[in-house]
Design goal:
- This is MftR C-terminal domain-containing protein.
- The chain is mainly α.
- The protein has one domain (about 10-75).
- The protein is about 55% helix and about 0% strand.
- It has helices at about 10-25, 35-50, 55-70.
- The longest helix is centred in the N-terminal third of the chain and has 16 residues, at about 10-25.
C-alpha cells in the first residue's frame, strides 16, 4: 500500500461510519479517502434528513462501489 492511501478495509469502514452518521442527521465530515462523488452522495443524504429516500442511500452505495471499482456492489448489503 502506498503512503497516504487507505487500505480497502479502512475505506469500507470509513464509508460505513460516514453513512451511519448522515443517516442520524449529522453533517458529513471532511475526511480523506472518499472521492468527490461519494462525498456528494453523503451530503445529499444529510440535506434530506430526516426524510431520506432509499434512492439516496442507494446512490451513496453505488458511488462508493464505483470508487472501489466494483460496479453494482452494494457495500452495506454485505455482511
Amino acid at each position: 500500500m502506498e503512503p497516504g492511501y487507505l487500505a480497502h478495509r479502512e475505506l469500507i469502514e470509513l464509508f460505513h461510519g460516514e453513512l451511519d452518521s448522515v443517516l442520524q442527521g449529522r453533517k458529513p465530515r471532511p475526511r480523506g479517502g472518499l472521492d468527490a462523488a461519494t462525498c456528494a452522495a453523503l451530503a445529499a443524504i444529510a440535506a434530506a434528513w430526516p426524510s431520506v429516500p432509499a434512492h439516496l442511500v442507494g446512490a451513496a452505495e453505488d458511488a462508493f462501489a464505483a470508487q472501489l471499482g466494483v460496479a453494482g456492489l452494494r457495500p452495506t448489503s454485505a455482511a
